[in-house]
Amino acid sequence: MTTETDTGAGTGTTTAEYAPEPTPRLDWAELAPDVFKAMIRLDAAAGQGLDPRLRELVKIRASQLNHCALCLDMHSKDALAAGESVERIVQLSAWEESRHFYTGKELAALELTEAVTVLTDGFVPDEVYEKAAEHFGETELAQLIAAITVINAWNRFGVTCRRTPGHYQPGQHK
């Protein structure tokens, strides 16, 4: 159990007791190192040619949708290290109501991210794909689709194995 002591300005000391950190189910990266290394290479290849901040926004949004705490921790830290603002990261969960924080290109990428990530709603709608195609050249669009697909794979490893957030350092897996 983690405790934190906060000494207020002359108000005394308060201690907050946090829930215990869960134990991961499985260290898949250690047990399947060739798969982990291949995922690292795939992730690097998928991100080529994409703006690093856009790439991190996409990774954060997919991770929010997939409830992957490890990836949220990791990509929020990487986004901050890439120069992204806290405000834009916080607003991602409500990007449709916070459109004024993002460019048209970023909005198209976020919409495509949601459509690719939440396939239970059906196919990626033509209008979503066409909007992304208006903002991205074919090569960049292919890279964006690859990046969205790869983060979804990472999320599935993270949530299935219950990887623990909070220990990642920016750029650790690059």
From TrEMBL:
> A Gene Ontology MF term for this entry?
peroxiredoxin activity
Alphabetized NCBIfam families for the sequence: ahpD_dom (TIGR00778)
The residues covered by the Carboxymuconolactone decarboxylase-like domain are: 33-114
Pfam families documented for this protein: CMD (PF02627)
Region Disordered: what ranges? 1-24
Residue stretches of biased makeup (Low complexity): 1-20
Bilayer-crossing regions: none
Q: What is this protein called?
A: Alkyl hydroperoxide reductase AhpD
